[in-house]
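dumping this here before i forget
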Amino acid sequence: MRHLLLAAVPAERLLRLRVLDPDRYEWVSGTGWSESIDAIRAHPVQMAVVDPLLGGEARAHGIEHIRLLFPSLPLLIYTELAPATASVLLKLGRAGITRVVFHRFEDAPASLRSALKAELEQSASRQIMQALGGSLQELPAELLRALEAMLNAQEEAPTVTALADRAQLTRRTCERWFTKLGLPSPRMVMVLTRLLYAHRLLLDPGYTVEDVALRLGYSKTKTFQMHLRAVFGLTAGELRVALSTEEALMIVNERYLTPLTQAAS
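structure:
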C-alpha cells in the first residue's frame, strides 16, 4: 500500500525522506506552516513529519496549531538534537506529541522506516479498519489492505473493480468473499468504511464539510450528505456534534454488519 505523507521539514531532511522507499511513501512538501495546513486540507495526507526548525528558529506554535486543527493526524517530529530544540520538544511532549527522530543520530533508513510505520498505525484510516476488525476479520488480508487503501484513493472511484484490482483478485472472487461471510456487497462495505472515515475527519475542526467530501472522492457535497443521512440519519454538521466515534461504529456494526454476519453463521 502506498501512503501519502506531509513533510514540513527543511530541505536536507526532506531529501532523506524522499529517497526512503519511494514505492511505499509519496510526499507532499510543506514549505511553511500555513502551506502545510493548506496541504493537509487539500490532499489525503495520512500523517505528517514535522520539524520545529522549519521556519529557521525553533518554535512549537506551528506544530501545535496543526495538532489543534487536525487531532486525528499522526505527527512525527524529525529534527536536530540541539539546545535550541530542547525546550520546544518538552512543550510539544506536554501536548502529547512524543515520537521524535533526531537527524544524524537515529535517522538511518531502518530507523526512519520503523518510526514511520509505527506512527502510521495511528492514522485515522488504520484506526477505522482496526475498529471494524471483528466484522471484517475473516476477509483475506489483501482485501482488508485494499479496503483501507480505497479510503485514501481520492482520485479513484470506489468501484468493486477498483477494489478487486487493488487486492489482485478477480471481481467475481472479491464478491464471493463478501457473500460467503454474510457481509453486505463490497460496494456497500466501501461506502460504510468511507462514511466512518469521513465522520472521524469531520471531528477535526480544521476540515470543512467540503474538504472531507472532496477527500473521500465525492464530486458533489450533496451526494456526500445524502449518504450520511441514509446511514446515520444526520447531516455532516449534525454528525460533528451529535455522534462520537464509538457511536458511529456501533450504528454501522449493528445495522449493517453484525446482523448479516450472525445470519450467515
